[in-house]
Amino acid sequence: MKNTQLYELHQKLGATFGGRHGEWNLAVQFTNPIEEHNAVRNSVGISDISFLGTFCLTGEDRATFLHRLISNDVENLLVGEGNYATLLTNRGKIIADLKVYIFEDTIYISTAPECIEQAFAELDKYIIADDVELSVVSDKVGAIAVYGPESPELVESVLGLKELRTLSEYHSLSCEIEDQWVGCVRSNTVGEFGYHLYTTTDRLEWLWNKMITAKSDVVPVGWDALESLRIEAGIPRFGAELSDAIFPLEAELEHAIDFEKGCYIGQEIVARMKYRGHPNRLLRGIIIEAEKPIQQNSPIVDGGKEIGWITSSVYAPTLKQTIAIGYVRMAYTEKGSRVQIKSQKDNIYGTVV
After folding, report:
1. 106-137 pLDDT, tens per residue?
2. 7-52+139-232 belongs to which homologous superfamily?
3. Contacts (Cβ under 8 Å, ≥6 apart) of 127
């Protein structure tokens, strides 16, 4: 199992560790996942997200090269801007979902650790005569997440940046503190104000300590709380909702697609589904009538007929009930639709929201 750069620090903080994202041994909780969840919803928490995969693209042709391969616009982004995109197969299915950040001489791409090897190979094979260098820099650059309604004030106080509340999602500001570069990217991956603070991996502990000591109520947040926050917000994750079996429009990822741009890998399939047809299924939230979360991949049924499956489920501290995300066929996507989830004992009822 792999450990992040902050493993020993998290041990000292009393974290409980568990295997996540295949090969990563991550801090899943520090105190209690519900307390950590509520801290993010009500005040501010910080989390180590340096397990995420990071690419960088350099060279004069970096923007035009990436633009012709992924689903969203790159060529028209300015320094400090960014967006969300997908890298697709030629059949229009998801190889990786990407967060694209434009810096002065570099494009940084953040993606899930499960798909970094395949995404790198897919991008790399198209570099022929382009002035582009593609590198995996996950071991050199990492990030700490700061989430919650009080996160703008915390980040501003530590980094000396201003007007972070007006920074658009995926847009960034850079600064130097104590002669160390920090890139601050606006993020909404848990349904609250948030920022991903990038720096070199050898200074992640320094940055973590700067953030957690800046205010007395800053709470360290483990993976389990991040997951319950994400599921409450209905945000898909690669390895759960997203995979190479899913079309972007099935996962409601229209915001990851520029329908006006020219060709990219999988574009014809995406356009055909958008303008000439429709997905056969859609991702939906489901209120579960059970105390315990539902196992991933549990079938969703109606009258014995399989109509979908569960991708993620959790007890939602904010809602104080069990919820899930899953794919359901189009006839069941309307709010209020009643469904059943197959379990080992009795079927469990749920309501689409």
Report:
1. 999 999 999 999 999 999 999 999 999 999 99
2. Probable tRNA modification gtpase trme; domain 1 (3.30.1360.120)
3. 65, 134
pLDDT one-digit tens code per residue, 252-288: 999 999 999 989 999 999 999 999 999 999 999 999 9
Question: Is there a contact between 226 and 235 (Cβ–Cβ < 8 Å)?
Answer: no
Length of the chain: 353
- Whose CA is closest to 36, among 229, 294, 189? 229
Q: Where are the beta strands (DSSP E) in 38-155?
A: 45-48, 53-58, 82-88, 94-102, 107-111, 133-136, 141-147
Question: For residues 248 and 60, what is the distance between their CA atoms, to the nearest angstrom?
Answer: 30
The answer to whether 265 and 89 have CB atoms below 8 angstroms apart is yes
> In CATH, which of 3.30.160.140, 3.30.70.1400, 3.10.129.10, 3.20.20.70 is domain 54-136?
3.30.70.1400
Q: Give bridge partners of residue 62 from the DSSP assignment.
A: none
Q: Does the domain spanning 280-353 belong to CATH 2.40.30.110?
A: yes
